[in-house]
Design brief:
The chain has 96 residues and is α+β, with helices and mostly antiparallel strands. It contains 2 helices and 4 strands, in the order E-H-E-E-H-E. Strand 2 and strand 3 form a beta hairpin. It is globular and about 40 Å long.
Length: 96
């Protein structure tokens, strides 16, 4: 399934900047960054639960926020991209 992960981490102090780096690094392990704080992750149900739990453990819920959008398996017709950055196929070839 395609899981869209968005986050907003308060970076007014050094701990916040550290949390932001950790959140972004974890998201990179699961998906593709499509905007600054937005990742598209092609995951199964177990990976989705694990990613959510790991992200919730990283943030400060008093200062930061996370949003998860489960787009589903037939996401190709649900996602429309307009603009400079070309879209990608999360199930396609990553390297040649």
């Amino acid at each position: 399934m395609l899981l869209l992960v968005t986050y907003d981490v308060n970076t007014q102090d050094s701990l916040g900047r550290k949390r932001l780096r950790k959140v972004a690094k974890l998201c990179v392990d699961y998906g593709q960054r499509v905007q600054n704080s937005v990742f598209e992750c092609d995951v199964d149900a177990a990976q989705s639960r694990l990613l959510k739990a790991r992200l919730m453990a990283l943030i400060d819920s008093e200062k930061d926020s996370l949003r998860f959008y489960e787009i589903g398996n037939k996401y190709q017709h649900k996602v429309e991209h307009i603009g400079v950055k070309a879209s990608y196929d999360p199930q396609g070839l990553l390297m040649m």
